[in-house]
Amino acid sequence: MAAQVVKVKRRASLTLQERMYLPDIFRGLAVTSRHFFSNLWGFIIGKPRIATVQYPEQRVEYPAAFRGMPVLVAREDGSERCVACGMCEIACPPRCITIVPEETDREIERHPKTFEIDLSRCMFCGLCEEACPEEAIVMSPDVEIACDTREGLVWNKEQLLQSREKLRPRLLYIREEFNKYESAKDAPTDVIGATNARLGQARVSGRPPA
Predict the structure, then answer these.
(1) CA dihedral sign of residues 158, 160, 166, 170
(2) Which of 86, 95, 128, 164 is the most exposed place for a label (fewest CB within 10 A)?
(3) How far apart are CA 141 and CA 147, in angstroms?
(4) Coil, helix or strand for 137?
(5) Structure pTM?
(6) Peptide bond into 56 cis (omega under 30)
(7) Displacement of CA 67 from its chain's centroid (Å)
(8) Measured over all CA atoms, what is the biggest interatomic distance in the chain, rounded to whole angstroms?
(9) Per-residue pLDDT for 67 more than 70?
(10) Which residue from 59, 60, 38 is spatially nearest to 50, judged by alpha carbons?
(11) DSSP per-residue letters across 79-124
């Protein structure tokens, strides 16, 4: 297909009205004023027309798929589920997770003596959550991590621990997504795979392929 050449006509100079930009300025102010007074009237009559959240008195309930800061899941006795395997530490792209393991007398044999996450480096990617075999670290709905110093953004194990009840929506979401992956893992995903699957089924049944 041959390229089409389009000639653009450009005027050498703008008119006085165009150089002053006054029509465009007044047109923009008219749009802004219309929205402002329309929304103001909605608040006066008690029927707001925009979704304004009065933070921090009002909070947004995030969906289970939302990825906030990573946290540790606590057991019923308050201890961490983490077994200090180091999978999340290895999977973390910015290397913001630091784990120092130690032996324990409990049935899990090992747990983290130190578990720290540098939230100033965390990119909230969720790879630590995917790598964890124990559902011990998940992405929470928490996003309020502002601090005055860099040191304050390094959270330790005690700060990261959250109850299982609070994280239940996220844990259920993880399991649901994992089950979808497991059910689709063996399904053919391309034309060649689907054809081979049909041919194999035809050979087994003795019928010609569809």
Answers:
(1) negative
(2) 95
(3) 18
(4) strand
(5) 0.67
(6) yes
(7) 3
(8) 85
(9) yes
(10) 38
(11) -B------HHHHH-TT--EEEEEEE-SSTT-EEEEEEEEETTT---
Alpha helices in 45-86, H assignment, sequence order: none
Write the Ramachandran bin of 90: left for phi over 0, alpha for psi from -120 to 50, otherwise beta: alpha
Separation of alpha carbons 85 and 100, rounded Å:
10
Distance CA 74, CA 167 (A): 10
**74 conformational bin, left if phi > 0, alpha if psi -120 to 50, beta if neither:** beta
Provide the token pair at 52. 């304004």
Residue with tokens 């006066």: 44
Exposed (0-12), middle (13-18) or buried (19+): which is 39, by Cβ within 10 Å? middle
| pLDDT, tens only, 179-189 | 887 776 665 55
Token pair 């002053």 is at which residue?
A: 20
Length in residues, the chain: 210
Domain 70-184 fold is Alpha-Beta Plaits (3.30.70)
Structure tokens at 44: 């006066």
Only one residue has tokens 């961490």, namely 80
Beta strands in the chain (DSSP E): 70-73, 97-103, 110-118, 137-139, 154-155, 161-162
Please tell me which residue, 182 or 70, carries the higher pLDDT value. Answer: 70
